[in-house]
Predict the structure of WD repeat domain 86.
Amino acid sequence: MPGHPSLAGRSFFLVLSSTGGMGGGGSALRVCADHRGGINWLSLSPDGQRLLTGSEDGTARLWSTADGQCCALLQGHESYVTFCQLEDEAAFTCSADCTIRKWDVLTGQCLQVFRGHTSIVNRILVANNQLFSSSYDRTARAWSVDKGQVSREFRGHRNCVLTLAYCAPWDLPGAPCVEEAVAGGLLVTGSTDGTAKVWQVASGCCHQTLRGHTGAVLCLVLDTPSHTAFTGSTDATIRAWDILSGEQLRVFQEHQGSVICLELANRHVYSGSADRTVKCWLADTGERVRTFAAHRHSVSALKYHAGTLFTGSGDARARAFDAQSGALQRVFRGHAFIINCIQVHGQVLYTASHDGALRLWDVRGLPRAPQRPAAPKRS
């Protein structure tokens, strides 16, 4: 049954600390500690007005970015929430209970339950009025957002599907030889079977299988203008692929541990790894141009914003680096466990941790990116 809406308690408190200079401490604005379990994901709405957190406690919460207050408690899942995505008018959550739920962002009411997966739902993605999902049941699925029904099933992976990316049809070439195949766009999935697959959304057929990794594919990002997918793996490499032809274009191989997260910005790929570093690469050549090496544990989250690279780590700290020079600008201390996700809105950094807290940090005073940043020098 859909969960009933309820207003969440406003149990946050103000934390005062000094704002340091280079490598100094960040200033915590608020700690929102309403969840009773670790926060697995944090999503910012397109209009920047709300945040959505999904937790181990089986609930999701909506927060206002204007004042940091919890607006609504989303209850109904029967197990922990693995991932969430917030749109302007609806929130979406997926869970280890094998379901996906759609929620009204104004009332907190559950509007739709998407049933069909037979194991943990790992990721969801809302795009082009469709909902895409990946699961431990070895499938990905496409759903009608309005009807809550499965429109396509993507079967072919030999193990669980972890990560998803979507390329809309208008971002793909219109040549006659590919026009029919890409009419509904392309879905890219990464799996623990060591492959990524490119699917034709309109037909459900596998368009390409991207083979080359020797370990699980943990993360992927798409560069839609060049039709290139970048995948990160437990084999410590990042690989670039042409999603139309399936050709492996480049291999990025200097990490000494699993590649956990990827961020693509300004023709640069940023990769966070279990080797405690972040590396910056030229997307078009695969050349490594910089290593960020201030972390004390695996790098678990990345976010590029206005010339600053924000990172989250298993050492329970977030960091801000000047993306161009590589200089450490600020360290944000206060969490007790791994930081699972980070977002930035305006002059506020949001960090979500396995300690169950959402923290808001003041990032005023960090360098702003020039309009046309110079290419970084090789370190």
